[in-house]
Design a protein that fits this description.
Blueprint lengths: L1 E6 L10 E6 L2 H14 L3 H33 L2 H11 L2 H13 L11
Antiparallel strand pairs: 1-2
Length: 114
């Protein structure tokens, strides 16, 4: 089945709508029709909302992955770490925490993210 739905920009209150034709597997179309009936909403609004959420989540996931990659690069550069601590005035405090971690059997250089 082919359905047409409007894609809207949620950042604008009244954004212009465009039309897009989508092919859906029969089972997905049936689930969509059932959801529309149960919620009293039309299929176009449900599809538009789902696509918007999907795109927003993908953007968030990409940003998080970029941040993780930056942290990995940053954490492997001792000069960058030292300079950032000095700029923040934290060098003495960080060294104190690292000493406490070592005394407790914790490796402060161990990466704590995947």
């Amino acid at each position: 089945m082919r359905i047409a739905f409007a894609v809207r920009n949620e950042l604008q209150i009244e954004s212009p709508m465009s039309h897009l034709s989508v092919r859906l597997p029969k089972d997905v179309e049936q689930c969509l029709a059932r959801e529309a009936e149960l919620t009293g909403r039309n299929r176009s609004d449900l599809v538009s909302e789902a696509v918007g959420q999907y795109l927003k989540q993908n953007e968030r996931d990409r940003l998080i992955e970029e941040m993780k990659q930056s942290a990995r690069v940053f954490s492997s550069d001792p000069d960058a770490i030292r300079e950032s601590r000095e700029l923040a005035g934290l060098e003495d405090r960080v060294e104190s925490i690292e000493r406490q971690e070592r005394a407790a059997g914790i490796d402060p250089d161990e990466k704590r993210w995947d």
